[in-house]
Amino acid sequence: MSSASRPTLMLASASPFRRRLLEAAGVAVEVVPAAVDEALLKRELDGAAPDEIALALARAKAEAVSARFPAALTIGADQVLALGDQLLSKPRDMAEARDQLRQLRGRLHQLHSGVALAEAGAAVWSHAETATLVMRPFSDAFLERYLAEAGEAVCRTVGGYEIEGRGIQLFEQVSGDCFTIIGLPLLALLAELRARGALDT
User: Which residue, 13, 55, 159, 201, has fewest beta-carbon neighbours within 10 Å?
Assistant: First the structure.
């Protein structure tokens, strides 16, 4: 498929991390954040598996933007952090980030990242991946120093850390794809975009 006949790619996400991942991979997207009530959708999915919640959120975002731009191919993505049976959301402030990091300290948690593609308002493909992470038992002094140095950035991501930055110092073990940890199963998405003629093969 020639570049002129390829569909426009929309990214239904306000996440600067996902946009940067795609741009760094040479994928040109137009960013249109989706107006989706995530809290309501999570309540409706109460009891569902974390990866299913991530997929449902990704599909909902992709479909919401795709309905506005039906001729485009829209990418939606979302991520759910599971600490045992508890699901964490992005911290609302520094105090909540501190509380989340104390909860995660010395324990294993999982990040479930979902991605979806939609056309003409309907999801046509979706995929989820899971990464497992173990935080080290860091001291309270380290936690306070980390929060002071990271600043408000800790409120941009669930769990209060950016693993591609100084947040990596919180961990003793990481198992899973780095893109999944950041919140976008990139390799699977690129393969599907190629299969659909949206990228060079």
Answer: 201
